[in-house]
């Protein structure tokens, strides 16, 4: 029962991703199996035609008689050559069907792989940010690569399992038609075998689940270890990480080993089982039932093939169960990610022209830990420059995440040009934003592509080259880029490892300036820069005043002297607001003491 439920369940899952055309595989499978069973059954009239004393019609089973009638109708009943020719035609037909089936399965599988990877990637792209931060990159990579590949190969195991089921049934059905006593025995044996293997299947599936989740764990450790390679190597922390990785690899390989043992057990059983059963059956047929030789011979041939198919059916099922964990993981992941897609409205925003304002906005990552932002009320008029300052952990970056709508306030609202954030079409808002975040984002590609994000080829597009260079100049990056071996065509390495921290930051700023956003967010954007570069970029940003809205988060207060308004944040609240000069000289203001601490 469990087995049938499992098959139906997987069938549903495959259908969800492949669609109805999957059934064509089954039609082709049935046709192939029928052709094969029929081809073998044709040996019976062949044997009879070769015997001088051919079976008298009253000894014949109904099937034999029908076959005889067919051959008579075709005019080849008594011709060995005729029957041989017919067998050849049936097997050629079977070969063609098998080829069509295999080819079509290949086509479906490649589609399945493409669809799975593409859909999952799309779903990941639109997942809610809060869901993302609760997960781990290693997990996503494991699902989209390893698990999806296993899911894909499970379909071929599933198809081969079904092929074996249909083949087994067809062999047994033909055998049944020839001699029913024999077939009853065969079916009895089949049922016993199935019972024996059921327990093995449950065991193998459990192993497969463990193996899939262990792979996620290992991926997580590997990604973390490799991403932090430099830190780990230079502080010799590899030992700690290594023990975790080694332990995870040990568990993973242990599961694989046990799966293999179960596989070896089934394939080793195959041959002895078949031979024993055939020997037993011949004895029973000949001694007890005293049946004629030709039908026994053909029925045994069918039975032998049927047994082989039955055992392959078990291995096919086991292979499917080997990958069951992956099928379930990918299917669950789809549901989970789809459930956590980022909600959005339909109002398409025009370019920002009035303001961004918070009304009593409160946000917490975890309700039990209390709000990270409390009762925020402020308005940033379009085309002004504002700065948020405050100690680490005060909530400045979280506030920016609300502005970009990556996070949503649980209470109160955020209005963009008067439209509540939950009503806006996110792409229409985010395409207006340039964001230099604390974590520098650099792609492993050329400098030019890092700035224009593959907008074109600067070697061919003069206007584009000019725009890229202009952005680089304003980010004070042009001269270091010119000094690189291939200039703008230099590749920067994974996450920009071939650049210095300050160079990476300038490259990042250049990209956001190239975009010409309506809202530019700079979160500690110049923290890795020397004073001179910082001042230079400061001038570029000051030059943007009035052209776009600029939101700056800075610890170095010297960099925000020219902003229109400063907000001082403390423990998730805005505690002071005013112009730099106003706050700087306000008696006992927090800002004043902050400035004095930095001895400006
Ligand atoms: N993903 C998260 N899950 C839970 N809490 C978080 C998460 N990110 C930030 N926090 C918490 O929210 C608070 C505000 O963090 P936030 O990064 O907004 O501060 P910040 O003012 O930008 O600090 P910094 O100047 O150090 O960047 C901190 O107490 C932090 O622990």
Automatic annotation (TrEMBL):
A GO CC term attached to the entry: plasma membrane
Topology of the protein relative to the lipid bilayer: Multi-pass membrane protein
SMART domains: AAA
Keyword Transmembrane helix: yes
UniProt cross-references to InterPro entries, sorted A to Z: AAA+_ATPase, ABC1_TM_dom, ABC1_TM_sf, ABC_transporter-like_ATP-bd, ABC_transporter-like_CS, P-loop_NTPase, Type_1_exporter
Ranges for domain ABC transporter: 356-596
Principal location listed in the UniProt entry: membrane
Residues spanning the signal sequence: none
Membrane-spanning parts: 21-50, 70-92, 150-174, 180-200, 275-303
Keywords, sorted A to Z: ATP-binding, Membrane, Nucleotide-binding, Transmembrane, Transmembrane helix
GO molecular function: ABC-type transporter activity; ATP binding; ATP hydrolysis activity
Domain ABC transmembrane type-1 per the UniProt entry, residue ranges: 24-322
Subcellular location: Cell membrane
Organism this protein belongs to: Longibacter salinarum
Protein name listed in UniProt: ABC transporter ATP-binding protein
């Amino acid at each position: 029962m469990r087995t049938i439920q499992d098959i139906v369940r997987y069938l549903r899952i495959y259908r969800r991703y492949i669609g109805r055309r999957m059934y064509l595989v089954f039609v082709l499978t049935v046709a192939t199996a029928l052709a094969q069973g029929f081809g073998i059954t044709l040996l019976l009239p062949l044997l009879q035609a070769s015997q001088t004393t051919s079976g008298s019609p009253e000894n014949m089973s109904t099937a034999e008689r029908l076959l005889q009638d067919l051959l008579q109708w075709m005019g080849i009943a008594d011709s060995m050559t005729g029957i041989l020719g017919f067998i050849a035609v049936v097997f050629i037909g079977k070969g063609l069907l098998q080829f069509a089936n295999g080819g079509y399965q290949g086509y479906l599988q490649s589609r399945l792989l493409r669809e799975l990877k593409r859909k999952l990637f799309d779903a990941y792209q639109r997942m809610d940010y809060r869901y993302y931060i609760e997960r781990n990159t290693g997990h996503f990579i494991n699902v989209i690569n390893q698990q999806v590949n296993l899911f894909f190969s499970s379909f071929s195991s599933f198809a081969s399992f079904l092929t074996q089921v249909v083949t087994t049934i067809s062999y047994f059905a033909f055998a049944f038609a020839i001699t029913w006593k024999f077939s009853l025995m065969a079916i009895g044996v089949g049922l016993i075998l199935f019972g024996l293997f059921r327990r093995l299947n449950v065991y193998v599936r459990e192993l497969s689940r463990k193996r899939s989740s262990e792979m996620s764990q290992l991926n997580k450790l590997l990604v973390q270890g490799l991403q932090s390679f430099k830190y780990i190597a230079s502080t010799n922390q590899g030992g700690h990480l290594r023990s975790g990785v080694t332990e995870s690899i040990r568990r993973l390989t242990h599961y694989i080993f046990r799966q293999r043992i179960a596989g070896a057990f089934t394939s080793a059983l195959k041959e002895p089982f078949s031979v024993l059963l055939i020997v037993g059956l011949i004895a029973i047929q000949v001694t007890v039932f005293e049946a004629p030789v030709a039908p026994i011979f053909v029925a045994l041939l069918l039975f032998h093939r049927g047994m082989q198919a039955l055992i392959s059916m078990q291995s096919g099922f086991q292979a499917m169960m080997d990958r069951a964990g992956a099928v379930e993981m990918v299917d669950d992941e789809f549901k989970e990610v789809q459930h956590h897609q980022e909600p959005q409205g339909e109002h398409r925003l025009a370019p920002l022209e009035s303001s961004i304002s918070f009304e009593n906005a409160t946000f917490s990552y975890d309700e039990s830990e209390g709000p990270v932002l409390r009762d925020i009320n402020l308005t940033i008029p379009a085309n002004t420059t504002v700065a948020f300052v405050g100690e680490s952990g005060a909530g400045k970056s979280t506030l920016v995440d609300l502005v970009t709508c990556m996070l949503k306030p649980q209470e109160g609202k955020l209005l963009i040009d008067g439209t509540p954030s939950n009503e806006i079409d996110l792409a229409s808002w985010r395409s207006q934003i340039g964001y230099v975040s604390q974590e520098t984002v650099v792609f492993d590609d050329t400098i030019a592509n890092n700035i224009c994000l593959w907008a074109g080829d600067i070697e061919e597009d003069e206007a584009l080259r000019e725009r890229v260079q202009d952005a680089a100049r304003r980010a004070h990056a042009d001269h270091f880029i010119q000094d690189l071996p291939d200039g703008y065509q230099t590749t920067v390495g994974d996450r920009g490892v071939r650049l210095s921290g300050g160079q990476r930051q300038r490259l990042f700023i250049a990209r956001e300036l190239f975009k010409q956003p309506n809202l530019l967010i700079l979160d500690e954007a110049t923290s890795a820069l020397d004073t001179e570069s910082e001042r230079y970029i400061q001038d570029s940003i000051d030059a943007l005043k009035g052209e776009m809205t600029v939101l700056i988060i800075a610890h170095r207060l010297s960099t925000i002297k020219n902003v229109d308004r400063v907000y001082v944040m403390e423990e998730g609240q805005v505690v002071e607001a005013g112009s730099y000069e106003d706050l700087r000289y306000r008696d006992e203001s927090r800002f004043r003491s902050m400035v004095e601490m930095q001895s400006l």
